[in-house]
Amino acid sequence: MDTVTYPDAAVKAELAGWVFGRVDISEHPGVARSLGVAGVPTAVALTAEGRVLGRIEGFVPGPDFARRIGALRINREP
């Protein structure tokens, strides 16, 4: 994901509207558990209040990842 998906121009453009963070699940297993992360890579989209909007599990190519993140963004907007 770091070398193929995240550098993709469409992904960068879509993630510009999000706050992006990483959690090392081996160092913070409680955070992983609370978000329902069982393996990596897993992207979890949260609202500012911490409500899970959705997740993307496993490797996803850039264009598909951007489309899926965009769908989560659209679904969270009023």
| Average pLDDT level | 90
What class would the helix/strand composition place it in? alpha+beta
What is the count of distinct domains? 1
Radius of gyration: 12 Å
Q: Order of strands side by side in the largest beta sheet?
A: 1-2
Number of helices: 3
Q: Based on CA inertia axes, which overall geometry fits? A: globular
> Could you spell the SSE succession in H and E letters?
HHEEH
β content, as a range?
A: 5-15%
**How many DSSP E strands?**
2
> In which range does the helix fraction lie?
25-40%
Unreliable runs: none
Q: Could you tell me how far the N terminus lies from the C terminus, measured between alpha carbons in angstroms?
A: 30 Å
Biggest sheet architecture: 2 strands, antiparallel
Structure in a nutshell:
The protein has 78 residues and is an alpha+beta fold. It is built from 3 helices and 2 strands, in the order H-H-E-E-H. The mean pLDDT is 90.
Could you walk me through the main structural features you see in this protein, from its secondary elements to its overall organization?
- With 78 residues, the protein is α+β, with helices and mostly antiparallel strands.
- It has one domain (9-76).
- The chain contains three helices and two strands.
- It is globular, with a radius of gyration of 12 Å.
- The protein starts with 8 loop residues before the first helix and ends with a helix.
